[in-house]
Design brief:
Structural class: alpha/beta
Helix content: 40-55%
Largest sheet: 9 strands, mixed
CATH topology of the largest domain: Spore Coat Polysaccharide Biosynthesis Protein SpsA, Chain A
CATH class of the largest domain: Alpha Beta
Mean pLDDT: 91
Number of helices: 9
Low-confidence stretches: none
CATH superfamily of the largest domain: Spore Coat Polysaccharide Biosynthesis Protein SpsA, Chain A
Amino acid sequence: MSKPMTPEVSVIVPIYNVERYLRRCVDSVIAQTYSNWELLCVDDNSPDGCAKLLAEYAGNDERIRVLSRRTNGGLSGARNMGMAHARGKYISFLDADDSIHPQLLEATRALSIQHDADVVAYRYEKVAEDFEPPLLAEVQHHQWKHKVVTNPLQYRRRRGRWAIQCSACTMLYKREVLDGLSFAPILFEDYPYIVKVLLRRPKAVIMQELLYYYTDNRESIMTRPFLPEHIADYGLGLADVWDACKEAPEEDREHVLREIFPDILKQVLNRIRRSPQKSQPPLWREFSTVLRQLDALGCLQFRGHKITRWLRYMKLLRSGG
């Protein structure tokens, strides 16, 4: 009997309370035109029928492996567990309520090989809950529009098609570029992880095509009430990024201060403003605490912020919220 082929690509999917989306997600991986992959489904102690569905898929396709956690530990822990068990040369992350284009693995792997790239970035498209991804595609990978860059951090906040989106799920990674990195045990874990990857200055291919289908899930963290602990997690993520900047070139530290910090702080500010008026006071107090912490670290600086927002931050620093 021939020995099973070592998978070239490991696709990691954390799973929790997503039974209604799971078949669509897994089927989109099975439909890939490139076949030498393994799908690591990390059951994060999901309370619904996901375990039964996963057992069915794993029984029918030996490329699908199920990893089970005894207690629910969150998205970061599930991804880290998947990474620890992955065997592929390449890593791809997929959320269980999303799906992917049938040529995603074929195209990204081919472009990585063609350009000896460490990461290949692509774009996502927001879709409805009842969206069905295409199951057939016949486009040659050399027809995909792409650009090769050697300092991809500079493309993190660019507008237009040549941009790297701040989602772990919109890149194919060579395994070695992720060595020593893990997802922090916080909400909104993607942006510090992606920035830390890009601070390593991997050679990158940026694709214009929409290859990832992001479900507009009304139960996602981004649609739930904004809480003080969410703001605290944003602060922990920014502190994590700044710590990673210590060994980075001056140009990259400047980019983080000028582009990434203002962008994240603006997101927090806008989410507080959109929250119900009666729930805002504890949010402002927590935001003030985070600003003071960042100021103490030396990473709260004027450049990159609009003057009106900067004055608001300074007022919060002085007033305590």
